[in-house]
């Protein structure tokens, strides 16, 4: 079990964290099995995505349109309600197969952290099981 | 492997089930690994969320706006189509890390059952793997 | 670890792949545990759903409305941005419990591949862990 700490740089961004995950997997020594990733936050999310040029901003623009601007009840900041809803829709965890110690991803598939309320330090628990 | 049964109380609600999951995990005896949760339904969903006051209703209001009212083909009840779409968007499963027998969650992160077609009894299969 | 290859037949469709997954699980020989499924693509997604008559088309119609038609930056084809966003929202992986060698699913719950950019061959990595 390892905690990956990712420093995000903007209020909202899609960060490619595939390389950081690959490095952490190599340290774990599991060659064949599943790499479980779990994000310890409620205004960010974890998934996989294509990252063709501009796709990161396309995803963020679409989510901004998809989640409506309602009169949210959130006590501190109504924008936080939108962040929580985006995070809940995308989800906090993914489980990626490992073979010969390598993440099995499609040719255009990257592991991404979606930041909705940054810049912040974000923690991801990584556990590889055989 | 254990089946958690959760009784929901309304047609739509966001239920914090973290405590029920913690109790079931303690019975399993796995100290370090992953707690897999899988919901056996198609008009409810499983995820994690912040539960600041009002966030539960904010999430439900947003989903009601996000999923449009179309002329759905659903044979019994067109509202069920909306429930199925919400459930499909959020998803039926999450995998949460365990350390020293405790769920590793962020400080504001709760395990939540989203009920879209209640009140009902909802079954969740829990399996902890090392 | 096994690679399931699914041939989709349309540009967009919801395919019930439960039977193909059941067959692959039977070959793996794991009786009790978790069946992890991971899709190696960025214009398709994996989840569970009800498949009452018409629900497949209801889901696709809803997603087409939910993801807005913006001036996406995607370099090859702006429609691909919509596919990527749908795939990112639904997600690439699910983890289904196994008991006595059988997938534990709800009575109306099916494992589905959502195709957004077909017809294509789609690869899913399947790994059963005890």
Describe the structure.
The structure is a homotrimer of 130-residue chains. With 130 residues, the first copy, chain A, is α+β, with helices and mostly antiparallel strands. Chain A has a single domain (2-129), classed as YjbQ-like (Jelly Rolls, Sandwich). Helices cover 28% and strands 36% of the residues of chain A. The first copy, chain A, contains three helices and eight strands. In chain A, the strands form two sheets. A five-stranded antiparallel sheet of chain A has the order 1-8-3-5-6, covered by helices on one side. The longest helix of chain A has 13 residues, at 78-90. Chain A is elongated. The model of chain A has no long low-confidence stretch (mean pLDDT 95). Chains in contact: A-B, A-C, B-C. Chain A binds chain C through residues 32-34, 47-50, 52-55, 57-59, 61-63, 65-66, 89-91, 94-97, 99, 104-109, 112, 129-130, and chain C through 1, 36, 38-43, 66-68, 70, 72-76, 80-82, 84-85, 87-89, 91-93, 95, 123, 125, 127, 129.
């Amino acid at each position: 079990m390892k905690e990956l700490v990712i420093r995000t740089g903007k209020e909202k961004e899609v960060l490619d964290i595939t390389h950081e995950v690959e490095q952490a997997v190599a340290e774990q020594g599991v060659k064949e099995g599943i790499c479980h990733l779990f994000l310890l936050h409620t205004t960010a999310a974890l998934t996989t995505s294509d990252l063709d040029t501009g796709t990161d901003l396309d995803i963020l623009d679409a989510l901004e349109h998809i989640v409506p601007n309602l009169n949210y009840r959130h006590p501190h900041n109504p924008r936080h309600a939108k962040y929580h809803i985006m995070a809940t829709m995308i989800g906090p965890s993914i489980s990626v197969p490992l073979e010969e110690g390598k993440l099995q991803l499609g040719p255009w598939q990257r592991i991404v952290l979606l930041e909705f309320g940054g810049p912040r330090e974000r923690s991801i628990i990584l556990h590889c099981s055989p």
